[in-house]
Design goal:
Layout (H helix, E strand, L loop, with lengths): L1 E8 L7 E9 L10 H7 L4 E7 L14 H16 L1 H4 L2 H10 L7 H16 L2 H9 L4 H18 L5 H20 L2 H8 L4 H53 L22 H14 L4 H12 L4 H4 L1 H24 L1 H18 L6 H20 L3 H4 L7 H30 L3 H26 L7
Antiparallel strand pairs: 1-2, 2-3
Helix pairs in contact: 2-9, 2-10, 4-5, 4-12, 5-8, 5-18, 6-18, 7-8, 7-10, 10-14, 10-16, 11-18, 11-19, 12-14, 14-15, 14-16, 15-16, 15-19, 18-19
Family: Belongs to the major facilitator superfamily. Monocarboxylate porter (TC 2.A.1.13) family.
Main location: membrane
InterPro entries: MFS, MFS_dom, MFS_trans_sf, Proton-linked_MCT
C-alpha cells in the first residue's frame, strides 16, 4: 500500500520548510501524518523515503510590504529609474542641442532616431533580462549593465559624427539602461504585494528627479564647461547613483525554473494580457512625442533657446507629482482605474500641445501633460504583475516590455517625419494624441476582460 503525505513541521524558533515526502510502506497499516517523522526515525529500514524540495509558495500575507529592508530596496530601485528613465527622458535637451549645433546638417527625424533607440532599448532587453532574473541571474547582469551605461556616457563626450551618437548614445546607453531597468519591477514585486502601487510610485519618482535635474544641469554646464565635460560629469553622477543601487538591490524569493524557455507564449492565451500588450504598443507610438519635441516646438514659436531647454525639466518635474499621486491612490482603487483617466488626459493634451502659441500656455500644457504621462508610466508594469505567478513575473514583464519597445522605437521618428513634411507640429499632435487615446481604448477593453463589470478595483 502506498501513502502520500504532505506535511509542514514548525520547529521551535525555526522557519517553516515545505517538503513533499513519498513513503512506501511494505504491508504496514495507514499512518496519521503526525506519526510519520517519528516512525521514519525509528524504523528507517522499513521505508524508502524520497524528499523533493519545493520552493516556498508565497502567499499575499507573507510579502514584507514594508520594513527597513523593503524600503531600502525601493530606494535602490529609485536610483535605477533616475539613472535610466531620468537620463533617457532628458533626450529632449539633446534633440534641441544637436539640431542647433553638433548635428545641424541632419534632419530632425534622423536625430530623433537616436532618442528612439534609447527609449526602445530601455524596454527591449527585458525579454532576456526578465527570463534570467526568474532563473536567479540578477547581480551579474545588473553590474555589467551599470558599467555599460557609465562607459557609454563617457564615450558620448567624444562623439563627432551622426553614427557615433547612434552607436554610443542610442545603442550602448539604451542597452545599459535596459539591463538595469528590466529587473527593477521584478525585484520590487518580490518585496511588495498589498502596497505595491505605493512602492512603484516611489520608484518612478526617481525617473522624475533625474529628468528634472539632468536637463537643468546640462543647461548650466554646457555654456560653462562645454559639451564634453557635461557628459563626463553626467558619467560621474551615474557612477555614484548606480553604485548605491548595486549595493541596495537584491531579490528575496529563490529562483524558479518555470516551464518554457525565453518566451512564455501561453501567457498570450489570456485575452487580457494580449490586449494590454497591444495597448502599451499603441500608446508608446505617441506618448514620448511631447517630451521629444517640446523644446523644439518652443523655439519654433519664438521662445528663446535658453528657456526652451527648461521645458523637458518642467515636464519631468510635473511627472514627479503625478507618479507619487498615482502610486498613493493605486493601492486603494487599482492600477488600471488610475491609469485610464490619466492616460486619456495625456492623449488630449498631446492634441493641445501644438496649439499652445505663447510661453505661458505651453508651460501650462507641459505641466499637466507631465503629470498625466508620469502617472501612466509609473504604473505601467503593475497590471502585468498580477496576471500570473510571482515566479514568472520577470519573463512576463519582459515580453510586455519588448512589445511596447517597438512603439517607443517608431513613435518619435514618425512624429519627426510628419513635422518635416508639414512644416509644423499640428499634424504631429493629431497623430500622437490619437495613438495615445486608441491605447486608452484598448486598456479599457483589458479592464472589462478582467472585471466583466462596470465597477471594481483593478
Amino acid at each position: 500500500m502506498v501513502h502520500d503525505h504532505r506535511h509542514s513541521v514548525d520547529a521551535t524558533s525555526q522557519s517553516r520548510a515545505s517538503h513533499d515526502i513519498t513513503v512506501e510502506e511494505h504491508g504496514a497499516p495507514s499512518l496519521h501524518p503526525s506519526d510519520i517523522i517519528e516512525r521514519l526515525s525509528i524504523d528507517k529500514e522499513k521505508y524508502d523515503v524520497v524528499e523533493v524540495a519545493v520552493s516556498p509558495v508565497q502567499g499575499d500575507g507573507e510579502f514584507p510590504d514594508g520594513g527597513l529592508k523593503a524600503w531600502l530596496i525601493v530606494c535602490g530601485a529609485m536610483c535605477n529609474t533616475l539613472a535610466t528613465f531620468g537620463y533617457v527622458n532628458s533626450w529632449g535637451i539633446f534633440q534641441n542641442y544637436y539640431q542647433e549645433t553638433l548635428l545641424s546638417s541632419s534632419p530632425p527625424s534622423s536625430i530623433a532616431w537616436i532618442g528612439s533607440i534609447q527609449y526602445a532599448l530601455v524596454f527591449l532587453p527585458g525579454l532576456v533580462v526578465g527570463r534570467f532574473f526568474d532563473l536567479g541571474y540578477f547581480r551579474s547582469i545588473f553590474l555589467t549593465s551599470s558599467a555599460i551605461l557609465v562607459v557609454a556616457t563617457f564615450l558620448v563626450a567624444e562623439c563627432k559624427e551622426y553614427w557615433h551618437f547612434v552607436l554610443c548614445q542610442g545603442i550602448m546607453v539604451g542597452l545599459g539602461c535596459g539591463g538595469i531597468f528590466g529587473p527593477t519591477a521584478a525585484v520590487v514585486a518580490h518585496w511588495f504585494k498589498k502596497r505595491r502601487g505605493l512602492a512603484m510610485g516611489f520608484v518612478a519618482v526617481g525617473s522624475s528627479i533625474g529628468g528634472t535635474v539632468l536637463p537643468i544641469a546640462a543647461k548650466g554646464l554646457i555654456p560653462a564647461v562645454g559639451f564634453k565635460w557635461t557628459m563626463r560629469i553626467f558619467g560621474f553622477i551615474l557612477m555614484a547613483v548606480l553604485g548605491v543601487s548595486n549595493l541596495l538591490l537584491e531579490r528575496r524569493l529563490p529562483p524558479r525554473h518555470v516551464e518554457g524557455g525565453l518566451l512564455n507564449l501561453r501567457a498570450f492565451r489570456s485575452a487580457a494580457y494580449s490586449v494590454y500588450c497591444a495597448s502599451a504598443f499603441v500608446t508608446f507610438l505617441g506618448v514620448y512625442t511631447v517630451l521629444t519635441y517640446v523644446g523644439v516646438s518652443a523655439t519654433a514659436i519664438g521662445i528663446s533657446t535658453d528657456f526652451a531647454f527648461y521645458f523637458v525639466a518642467i515636464a519631468n518635474a510635473a511627472s514627479l507629482v503625478g507618479r507619487y499621486c498615482a502610486g498613493l491612490v493605486c493601492d486603494r482603487v487599482g492600477a488600471m482605474n488610475v491609469m485610464i483617466p490619466f492616460t486619456a488626459g495625456a492623449g488630449i493634451l498631446t492634441y493641445a500641445w501644438p496649439f499652445a502659441q505663447t510661453k505661458s500656455s505651453l508651460i501650462a500644457v507641459t505641466l499637466i501633460y507631465g503629470f498625466c504621462s508620469g502617472a501612466y508610466v509609473s504604473l505601467l508594469s503593475n497590471p502585468i504583475m498580477d496576471m500570473g505567478e510571482t515566479g514568472d513575473v520577470g519573463r512576463r514583464i519582459g515580453m510586455f516590455m519588448s512589445i511596447l519597445a517597438m512603439g517607443a522605437l517608431a513613435g518619435p521618428p514618425i512624429s519627426g517625419a510628419i513635422s518635416s513634411a508639414t512644416g509644423d507640429f499640428k499634424a504631429v499632435g493629431y497623430y500622437a494624441g490619437t495613438s495615445v487615446l486608441v491605447g486608452v481604448g484598448l486598456m479599457s477593453v483589458t479592464r472589462h476582460l478582467i472585471l466583466r463589470k462596470m465597477f471594481g478595483r483593478i
